[in-house]
Amino acid sequence: MNQNELIQPSDKIFIAGHRGLVGSALLRRFRAAGYTNLVMATRDECDLCRQDQVERWFDRERPDVVVLAAGKVGGIHANATLPAEFLHQNLLIHAHTIHAAWQTGVRRLLYLGSSCIYPRDCPQPIEESSLLTGPLEATNEPYALAKIAGIKMCDAYRRQYDCDFFSAMPTNLYGPNDNFDLKHSHVLPALMRKFHEAKVEGRAEVVVWGSGAVRREFLHVDDLADGCLYLLKHFTEGGHINVGTGEDLTIRELAELVAEVVYPTAQIVWDSSMPDGTPRKLLSVDRMHGLGWRHQVSLRDGIRSTYAWFLEHGPAAAANT
Ligand code: GFB
């Protein structure tokens, strides 16, 4: 135990969203670090979209620390076709949880946002100060607005009520327990499943959306979980901080990398009727590096280990829908 750290293994820590990609990684990381007083809630036990249920749950459990990783998430197609659900559910989840945390005296809260909160065309790599400096990417504007509201709630509760609430902005994530749905998932798990199924079914061609020219940054979710624990222990500031690798690649390069691991002889066919989304989304990670934290998992190793997980568990195991 290090008394200088801002959270302690004896703290009661609520991981909201523990069945998803991020929440399940947080559970693994906290347990490995000796944090055993962890509390979780399934949707049946506490529906975060219902204020009465959230308030009752916080009143009963009284956590010391909260990590807010719950929310409706999805890839470009899910965001573009379910805008009302993304806006409504995320606004409710964030508002109820942050408000109840204040009401019950939670000592420290980490809210997880997303790199899509930044303007579509802002300078790259994206610094934290770029927030609200320009228009958002249209394909995920509702989700981004809900995430921005969550960040601003943490800032407002810090300012008005002196709450120790702050936010981390992860770049695009992947890893075990991801959503491998072919339509609604993010690009990396979708490609993994597409290449895998083409190989198993003996099909040469694999259809990949968009032009392949846009660039994305990918962080293994175990690295994000490690970064979150690091921030909870050491980060004394408010506001929001980026968490990423500081490296990006084109979707074409990503597709080739996934093919190399899963199905090297596949032929990639581009479906230009599907949207590209934002042209580039590379986070500046100078502040995290300045705090002494860096990611550990290379993209190639992360794709290999995630594919091994996929082979063991299959697409149906994914809980993050
Ligand atoms: O990962 P993705 O869905 O999300 O798509 P975003 C990234 C890029 O991969 C886009 C292309 O240019 C897609 O057109 N892509 C190629 C594919 N093939 C596929 C495929 O089979 N499935 C998918 N999903 N994409 C999301 C936001 O944006 O990023 C969310 O919509 C969130 O709000 C998330 O912020 C992290 O990076 O474009």
Give a written overview of the molecule.
This protein is α/β, with parallel strands linked by helices and 321 residues long. 41% of the residues lie in helices and 15% in strands. The protein contains 10 helices and 13 strands. The strands form 4 sheets. It has a 6-stranded parallel sheet with strand order 2-1-3-4-5-10, sandwiched between helices. Strands 11-8-13 form a 3-stranded mixed sheet. Strands 6-9 form a two-stranded parallel ribbon. The longest helix has 21 residues, at 83-103. The protein is globular. The model has no long low-confidence stretch (mean pLDDT 96). Guanosine-5'-diphosphate-beta-L-fucopyranose binds next to helix 3, helix 6 and strand 7.
Q: Characterize the main sheet.
A: 6 strands, parallel
Low-confidence stretches: none
Oligomer type? single chain
Mean pLDDT figure: 96
The amount of beta strand, in percent, is: 5-15%
The computed structural class is alpha/beta
Number of DSSP helices? 10
Each distinct ligand: guanosine-5'-diphosphate-beta-L-fucopyranose
Short note summarizing the structure:
With about 325 residues, the chain is an alpha/beta fold.
